[in-house]
């Protein structure tokens, strides 16, 4: 299987180079050309994922077990107290929405950093650079793949929950709002993933930094407990308002658990905060360019 995967990956990379040459010789707009290259990067990674069938199946099984854990934990939580806080009466649904969105965001973002570290350790980052795929194109392609795989995890989690009897509000309008919330939440966090990748280029091993940041953001975001509990510690509650995940999960829970529109006057604040974080993507690409040029100038694109 390894030889077949290597051959298929080699074929994809050869096709990718051909795409670059075709685009360089064509009059297709730069935006469309770059998007085509980014999608091809994502396609290569998706092909690699599906070739490791056992790993893929085990990750799907992991989705089901995560749902079951919080389903049984839900029996220990008072439905009335949860309802008083405005999240309905089903703790399992409350926790699963938090875990699903948390995994969605962090699988997507850490994917960029881990892939960057892999390319550095394998000594193939230089090959990517000289192939004609700019670092920005490569990052976007990896992000697209990360979001596709995260979508599988998110949808699988929600479907598993529904199959064991957990109820969500999922009308057509609600589904459209859920999709919009996920897109806004992802875009609000993309800059963090790009900055992690930039740091990995120059500082190499930053797994511990990523782990600490993800823990802090999930803690302040209230993944498994109502955010209102943090109000008993004003300093932490104040900090939580600067974490984009906090606002994304509040929107998702209100839409899926109590059928409140994200455009309701009580929730529009969270929507606006997510939108305010999106422009940081441009700053993140500046940071990426700075660290990439610094590492290239010092000859440190490889591992040590």
Explained architecture:
The protein has one domain (52-297). Helices cover 78% and strands 0% of the residues. The protein has 13 helices and no strands. The longest helix is centred in the middle third of the chain and has 32 residues, at 91-122. The radius of gyration is 21 Å and the shape is globular. The mean pLDDT is 75.
Decide which structural class fits the backbone: mainly alpha
Mean of residue pLDDT values: 75
> What is the overall number of helices?
13
> Which segments are poorly predicted (pLDDT under 50) over 5 or more consecutive residues?
none
Roughly what fraction of the amino acids lie in strands? Answer: under 5%
Number of domains: 1
Span of the ends, CA to CA: 30 Å
Shape: globular
Helix content: over 70%
The helix-strand sequence is: HHHHHHHHHHHHH
* Beta-strand segment tally: 0
Quick rundown:
With 304 residues, the chain is mainly α.
List keywords for this structure.
single chain; 304 residues; mainly alpha; globular
What is the secondary structure topology, with strand pairs?
Blueprint: H1 2-24, H2 30-51, H3 53-73, H4 79-84, H5 91-122, H6 125-130, H7 135-163, H8 172-203, H9 207-221, H10 234-240, H11 244-258, H12 268-277, H13 280-297
Helix pairs in contact: 1-2, 2-7, 3-5, 3-7, 5-7, 5-8, 5-9, 5-11, 8-11, 8-12, 8-13, 9-11, 11-12
């Amino acid at each position: 299987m390894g030889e077949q995967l290597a051959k298929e990956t080699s074929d994809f990379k050869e096709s990718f180079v051909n795409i670059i040459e075709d685009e360089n010789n064509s009059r297709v707009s730069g935006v469309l050309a770059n998007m085509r290259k980014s999608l091809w990067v994502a396609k290569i990674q998706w092909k690699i994922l599906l070739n490791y069938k056992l790993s893929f199946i085990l990750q799907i099984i992991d989705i089901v077990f995560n749902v079951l854990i919080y389903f049984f934990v839900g029996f220990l939580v008072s439905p009335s107290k949860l309802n008083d806080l405005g999240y309905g009466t089903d703790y399992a649904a409350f926790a699963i929405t938090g875990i699903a969105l948390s995994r969605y965001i962090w699988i997507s973002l850490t994917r960029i950093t881990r892939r960057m570290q892999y390319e550095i350790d394998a000594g193939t980052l230089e090959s990517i650079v000289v192939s004609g795929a700019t670092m920005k194109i490569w990052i976007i392609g990896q992000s697209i793949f990360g979001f596709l795989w995260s979508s599988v995890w998110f949808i699988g989690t929600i479907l598993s929950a529904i199959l064991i009897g957990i109820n969500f509000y999922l009308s057509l309008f609600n589904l459209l709002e859920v999709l919009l919330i996920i897109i806004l939440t992802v875009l609000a966090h993309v800059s963090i993933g790009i900055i992690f990748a930039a740091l990995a280029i120059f500082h190499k091993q930053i797994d511990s930094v990523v782990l600490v940041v993800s823990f802090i953001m999930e803690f302040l975001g209230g993944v498994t407990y109502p955010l209102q509990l943090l109000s008993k510690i004003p300093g932490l509650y104040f900090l939580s308002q600067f974490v984009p995940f906090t606002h994304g999960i509040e929107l998702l829970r209100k839409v899926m658990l109590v059928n409140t529109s994200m455009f309701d006057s009580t929730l529009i604040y969270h929507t606006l905060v997510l939108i305010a974080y999106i422009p940081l993507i441009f700053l993140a690409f500046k940071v990426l360019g700075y660290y990439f040029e610094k590492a290239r100038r010092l000859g440190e694109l490889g591992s040590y």
